[in-house]
Write a structure and sequence with these properties.
Elements: H1 14-18, H2 25-28, H3 56-66, E1 73-76, H4 79-90, E2 97-102, H5 107-114, E3 118-123, H6 132-135, E4 144-150, H7 162-171, E5 175-179, E6 201-206, E7 219-223, H8 225-234, H9 242-253, H10 255-277, E8 282-285, E9 292-297, H11 300-309, E10 315-316, E11 324-328, H12 332-344
Parallel strand pairs: 2-3, 2-4, 4-5, 5-6
Antiparallel strand pairs: 1-7, 6-7, 8-9, 9-11, 10-11
Bound molecules: pyridoxal-5'-phosphate (PLP).
Modified residues (N6-(pyridoxal phosphate)lysine): 209
Keywords: Amino-acid biosynthesis, Aminotransferase, Histidine biosynthesis, Pyridoxal phosphate, Transferase
Organism: Brumimicrobium glaciale
Length: 346
């Protein structure tokens, strides 16, 4: 147990602390039966009613699955909303800062920019781990309110060393957001187990990857009660549509399907890695704990463009990691096509 709990309210923007949140009609009356004449809905139709603003059915299912309580869950319109709301809750535009470790997921930078918050980007080491010695001086900068750790990291695919994350949680006095969008594909444990130990920890996950619901836009944040209350305070009242809640509930009811697809993606990842290793123009394959692999080739720009000309779209990461391309694991047929086309590029 962390000895000293962080005073979360000292990290929150003062206008957010004082904010009187919107009270939706559906959150004031939670019963199921009644004549609903409160929310200016149309009485006719099947999608005519506003959805549950706090997604209680979905949260209960997630709570059972993850071993947390529903009060420790926030559901976002994708985990991109979890990221954006963190800036809005904790960072005063033009004043506060956030920090992350590059190369990493691009939305931390974009969200920081939208919110007019400076994002410090410390380079990861050669093996894509956090350089704690380089980070330590930043622990003293009280303007840094948020630290984003992406694990498994996008685009490099590796988990961040658990001991380094623990060290940050023990020493950083701001909010630590561990982005676990790809955790289902990883060998390591999720940080959700630590939300009761560290009241400044937010673990973000998503239905977009292993659960196969990228189109539905459902992301999750797991954190202590205080942080979740702040998220509920600033979120739009009905941020998760009825359709999206239904899609996520159905996915959770169909756990076997999730597991079967996950296992297939993992076995395909291994197969693709093994085949790519034998292709001469592939110089290196970085080990992956995600549903994509980062490969180094002789000339990433040329290979990326040639694949696009053949209607195969990968992600050129040459600007982030020299001569590297990120390849998502597709269906076995898609992977075969990718491999064959790659082999045939001159
Ligand atoms: C690391 C990481 N976090 C978050 C997201 C966004 O996920 P969502 O679809 O839940 O908004 C992505 C999407 O690619 C990602 O790579």
């Amino acid at each position: 147990m962390k000895l000293e709990m962080i005073e979360i309210k000292n990290l929150v923007r003062s206008n957010i602390l004082e904010l009187q949140p919107y009270s939706s009609a559906r959150s004031e009356f939670t019963g199921k039966e009644g004549i609903f004449l409160d929310a200016n809905e149309n009485p006719f139709g099947t999608m005519n009613r506003y959805p549950d603003p706090y997604q209680s059915e979905l949260k209960q299912k997630l709570a059972d699955l993850k071993g947390v309580t529903p009060q420790n869950i926030f559901i976002g319109n994708g985990s991109d909303e979890v990221i954006d709301l963190a800036f809005r809750i904790f960072c005063d535009p033009g004043k506060d800062k956030a920090l992350t470790f590059s190369p990493t997921y691009g939305m931390y930078d974009v969200s920081a920019g939208i919110n007019n918050v400076e994002l410090i980007q410390l380079p990861l080491s050669a093996d894509f781990q956090i350089d704690l010695e380089a980070l330590k001086p930043y622990f003293d900068d009280s303007k840094i309110k948020l630290m984003f750790i992406c694990s498994p990291n996008n685009p490099t695919g590796n988990l961040i060393d658990q001991k380094a994350i623990d060290f940050i949680l023990e020493n950083f006095k701001g909010i630590v957001i561990v982005d676990e969008a790809y955790i289902d594909f990883a060998e390591g444990d999720s940080l959700t187990k630590k939300i009761n130990q560290y009241n400044n920890l937010i673990v973000s996950q998503t239905f977009s990857k292993a659960w196969g619901l990228a189109a539905a836009r459902v992301g999750t944040a797991y954190a202590g009660d205080e942080i979740i209350s702040l998220y509920n305070k600033v979120k739009p009242p009905y941020n998760i549509s009825q359709l999206n809640q239904k899609a996520a509930n159905e996915a959770l009811n169909n756990f076997n399907n999730y597991e079967a697809n996950l296992n297939l993606i993992l076995s395909e990842r291994k197969r693709v890695e093994n085949v790519l290793l034998k292709i001469e123009k592939v110089k290196k394959i970085y080990p992956s704990d995600a549903n994509f692999i980062l490969i180094e080739v002789e000339n990433a720009d040329q290979i990326y463009t040639t694949l696009v000309e053949q209607n195969i779209i990968t992600r050129n990461r040459n600007k982030q990691v020299k001569n590297c391309i990120r390849i998502s694991i597709g269906t076995p047929e898609e992977n075969d096509t990718l491999i064959n086309r790659l082999k045939n590029i001159q």
